[in-house]
Amino acid sequence: xxxxxxxxxxxxxxxxxxxxxxxxxxxxxxxxxxxxxxxxxxxxxxxxxxxxxxxxxxxxxxxxxxxxxxxxxxxxxxxxxxxxxxxxxxxxxxxxxxxxx
Length: 101
Known about the structure:
Elements: H1 10-25, H2 31-52, H3 57-74, H4 82-100
Helix pairs in contact: 1-2, 2-3
């Protein structure tokens, strides 16, 4: 017969949270990708807490990683490429030089 894992099964929760690792390691990951992933990560962390308890090592890890993602989104934009960051600094410098004249 067929076996259904269900939304609260350990494997299902691991698959849902694997998204964090994939985004963290992907070179083309954008801020929008992370924003879209947060509800999935939050749901997996909440389910893990409910099913396995707050002291479970995986619950602790999921909640820590979710906190990292949330803090990342609240901070400066780490997705700026070096070229974009350089372009913005140069643009700011040109503007500043015009003000100095």
